[in-house]
Design a protein that fits this description.
Length: 209
């Protein structure tokens, strides 16, 4: 079924998902702040390791989202519509938070050694409930039950989102190690852009049929 979904999934929908996912990936949230701070404190290698650790934690949340959403929809066929409304409310909330986030890097936020950065990035992401809430808010709007099992679509889309997110986060860590604190000056502007995106995603969820 996986190959079937990959070959039949509409290309325009996938490109839309990829574009919006990349913009979300570039949002300077907790993960990027951690990788950036780690890069500033420990250098490019430490920043990259922090990003890879965060990516491992993201895979954990993708698996939980796929299994949890599948079980919920199997028990309650109308749950996907309810999830859209709950997801829209959550996206509006993080839009508000992003708009008001200055993007400042708190002192001591990162890690100074590669493996410490990797472990801390993975554990803090795994133990943070916010990523799975975001997965449940973002991924279902690109799912079409007629194309195959919902959980498999969530898993495939989530994996793509996780790979791009890990690459972006590790990239921020690397650049922070090279450029130092200068990268922090760009984060406030990225947060404003992210706020507009999240608000747009919330509207799309509400208007979806």
């Amino acid at each position: 079924r996986m190959c079937e979904i990959i070959t039949t999934y509409p290309a325009d929908r996938f490109l839309t998902f990829l574009a919006r996912g990349l913009i979300v990936n570039f949002t300077p949230g907790q993960d990027i702040l951690f990788a950036t701070a780690s890069g500033i404190q420990g250098g490019p290698r430490v920043g990259v390791m922090a990003g890879l650790g965060v990516g491992l934690g993201a895979l954990w949340h993708i698996g939980l989202a796929a299994l949890g959403l599948s079980a919920l929809i199997a028990a309650h066929p109308g749950a996907l519509a309810a999830i859209r409304y709950v997801g829209a409310a959550y996206l509006r909330y993080i839009a508000w938070k992003s708009w008001n986030d200055t993007g400042e890097l708190p002192a001591g936020r990162g890690a100074r050694s590669g493996w410490a950065a990797f472990r801390r990035g993975a554990l803090t992401n795994m133990l943070n409930p916010k990523p799975i809430l975001f997965m449940l808010a973002f991924l279902p709007q690109f799912v079409d039950a007629s194309l195959g099992p919902v959980w498999l679509q969530i898993l495939l889309l989530g994996t793509v989102f996780g790979i791009t997110g890990t690459s972006v986060t590790a990239g921020f860590g690397y650049l922070a190690g090279r450029a130092g604190r200068a990268i922090g000056a760009r984060m406030a502007a990225l947060n404003k852009l992210a706020a507009v995106l999240f608000a747009g995603l919330a509207a799309r969820l509400i208007l979806a049929e």
